[in-house]
Write a structure and sequence with these properties.
The chain is mainly β and 154 residues long. It has one domain. The chain contains 1 helix and 9 strands; from the N terminus they run ββββαβββββ. β3 and β4 form a beta hairpin. The radius of gyration is 19 Å and the shape is elongated.
């Protein structure tokens, strides 16, 4: 359990806090996964360089391209309900190929400078063709995981 009182403010030295990945799906759609490292805090000791970090990361997915046949399939469907997740029409899709999103943050800690690396990888995708987006695309729902690591800066 992490106590908020144990969080140590650290100074960001330099950054490449945004990462963009690509996801190719079995229906021919190409999605982008974009992540942003919002903040990094030192939260105590670990055997990994003598420090432990907490990375506050956010992300989102958008459609890069879809086959025209998918756009045609949903063009007359109602817009996706914004406040409540629809329960009908979901189908699982295979992730055919992907390049995970990667973001880096260089931080100053009590043990010196570290490069904090966050990699986001999509693990499941569902599609709904009973509804459409405002841009006449099927609705895609993506579940991704963050992998956080760090090492001393050389």
């Amino acid at each position: 359990m992490i106590s908020l009182l144990s969080l140590v403010n650290i100074h960001t030295v330099s950054q490449q806090p945004v990462g963009v990945g690509n996801i190719k799906l079995s229906d021919g759609a190409h999605l982008r996964l974009k992540i942003l490292i919002v903040d990094v805090k030192e939260i105590g000791f670990s055997p990994f360089g003598g420090v432990n970090f907490y990375a506050n990361v956010t992300g989102g997915v958008y459609v890069e391209s879809i086959p025209d046949s998918l756009r045609e399939l949903v063009k007359d469907k109602p817009l996706f309900p914004g406040l409540e997740l629809a329960r009908d029409g979901w189908e699982l899709l295979d992730i055919v190929e992907q390049k995970p999103a990667e973001a880096l943050e260089v931080v100053q800690s009590s043990r010196g400078e570290f490069v904090v690396r966050v990699v986001a990888e999509a693990v499941m995708v569902a599609r709904n063709t009973h509804y459409r987006s405002p841009t006449n695309e099927p609705i895609y729902w993506v579940h991704w995981l963050y992998k956080v690591s760090w090492k001393p800066r050389k």
